[in-house]
Amino acid sequence: MASFTARFSSTAAAHFALRRRLSFLVQPPARSKSCVCMLRTLTETTPTLSLYGEDGIHRSPRPPISLPQDPNLSMIPFLFRKLSSNVHSPALVDAQTGQTLTFSDLKTQVLNFSKTLLDLNISKDDVVFIICPNSLLFPIAFFAVVAVGAIATTANPLYTAAEIYKQFKDSNPKLIITTPQFHDKIKHLSLPCIMLTTSKIPIYSSSDVALPPVTQTDAAAILYSSGTTGTSKGVVLTHRNFIASALMMTSDQETYGDSRNVFLCFLPMFHIFGLSALLYAQLQRGNTVVVMARHEMKKMLSAIEKHKVTHLFVVPPVVVELAKHQEMVKEYDVSSVKEILSGAAPLGKETMEECARIFPNAVVYQGYGMTETGGPISIGNARTDTPYSGSTGMLAPGVEAQIVNVDTMKSLPPLRRGEIWVRGPLVMKGYFNNQKATMETIDEQGWLHTGDIGYFDNEGRLYIVDRIKELIKCKGFQVAPTELEELLLTHPEIKDAAVIGIPDVDACEVPIAFVVRSSYSSITEAEIKDFIIKQVAPYKRLKKVIFIEEIPKSAAGKILRRELRQRFLSKL
């Protein structure tokens, strides 16, 4: 197959010949019979229920979704189930070169790659390690892996060789798919490797490929959580998780009869936001995905103008950047954009409003999800939500939630803050080879304890306050880092900011800020402290300001507070 080059060393080939089967040890917690019945109802045809019940459970007000009844309708047959109606429609477009793959082309390439994998003796439950930047080849490779019943584990291309090795050891893959630029990072792993070396993909007709039977309950991917508050763990997601997430993510498009839309994808495809909520969800809906290798402001704006992009999925730093570069945005025609969805971290109301002003036909809203749920827990709706409320919208269809007091473990009513627990067909199977962590996260009733603090308002909108482990306990009060960060970002001389808590003899913890100055700024620590003093209660005042060149963040845009904390403590 001309598009893909399989490259083996003699050592790797010999190693590959010793077929290593995956010992899949994840065991989800046992559920009561009544809970199983409840989950079955949710996963088959979710009824329309009230927002908040007497049982303390919040339920989605959205119309129900119906998941496929055929247990053998796995991700790839589901993806192409409407091929007859969109056979010649564009599925994937390279933002830079303009190369376009129709849905028919995409299916052909996936089948061709699947045949390559089968020829290399990749079979059901084998783990395949994918480390690639965004490109047209990434989704082809990923879909081919899950098509043959294997399990894809994706890694951040920015990882060091040591970080890659750590994920390699944990996931125990049988094959690596990568590009030549990462050869030095993976050569020491002594595994067979498929190198994706062709930028322009030739289209060949596919021969008949006898794919092995794959069910919805089979594992499709092991995606590693960002590890912002601890050690990164492998999240096992099934074909059913992906299908449920896709239907939930696009349910509003179905409800309002939206025609095909154009989505710009610069979110990393190895991450759940780019892979599930954007790539898989939108392609199964028949939408077009324009692919960018990475986010660059001018290239993003140029792609919007050139390809008439209608939807932007972004992380908060991109929204902040757009809001602070309004003159640059005005140089391009962005009138095609009608919706901008921000996720992965909380976004302030003021920043959302500022971004909306420079996109004349767009509404900016938020969603909330996590790797462990494979997609959206809640999502805004541009047609029905109160504009720029600061919420992450209402629950996705099929999702139940509780707000729980972390001390009493009792459910809380609207407007009361507590830990968010969620349940539904999108909840992961468990953590890979880590039953202890699985049991600590998913209880016997199937509730996933998110570790996030939030609350519902009286209309059923969900608000995220912070992570439990990121809340700063100062003199008996709780300080949310995101609140101070949003205030700091309103200062015209501050480009970026992050807040953490550090130990304090008198107060238990106090907040300190890491600040990136704007290029022209000489703002001082005292000026920043004074700026905050005027806007917050005394216990929220900054103890210290540290100037740095860049705030460390995950690929999804989450602030790596643990890294900042280690950096600070190492200098004491």
From TrEMBL:
Q: Name one Pfam family in it.
A: AMP-binding_C
Q: Name one GO biological process term.
A: phenylpropanoid metabolic process
Q: Which InterPro entries match?
A: AMP-bd_C, AMP-bd_C_sf, AMP-binding_CS, AMP-dep_synth/lig_dom, ANL_N_sf
Tagged with keyword Heme: no
Pathways per UniProt:
Phytoalexin biosynthesis; 3,4',5-trihydroxystilbene biosynthesis; 3,4',5-trihydroxystilbene from trans-4-coumarate: step 1/2
AMP-binding enzyme C-terminal domain segment(s):
483-558
Q: Which GO terms describe its molecular function?
A: (E)-caffeate-CoA ligase activity; ATP binding; trans-feruloyl-CoA synthase activity
The record's keywords, sorted A to Z, are: ATP-binding, Ligase, Membrane, Nucleotide-binding, Phenylpropanoid metabolism, Transmembrane, Transmembrane helix
Q: Give a yes or no for keyword Transferase in this entry.
A: no
- Which spans are transmembrane here? 136-159, 262-283
Q: Which residues form the AMP-dependent synthetase/ligase domain?
A: 86-432
**Annotated family:** Belongs to the ATP-dependent AMP-binding enzyme family.
| PANTHER family with a match to the protein in the record | AMP-DEPENDENT SYNTHETASE_LIGASE, LONG-CHAIN-FATTY-ACID--COA LIGASE
Q: What is this protein called?
A: 4-coumarate--CoA ligase-like 7
Q: Which organism is it from?
A: Sesamum alatum
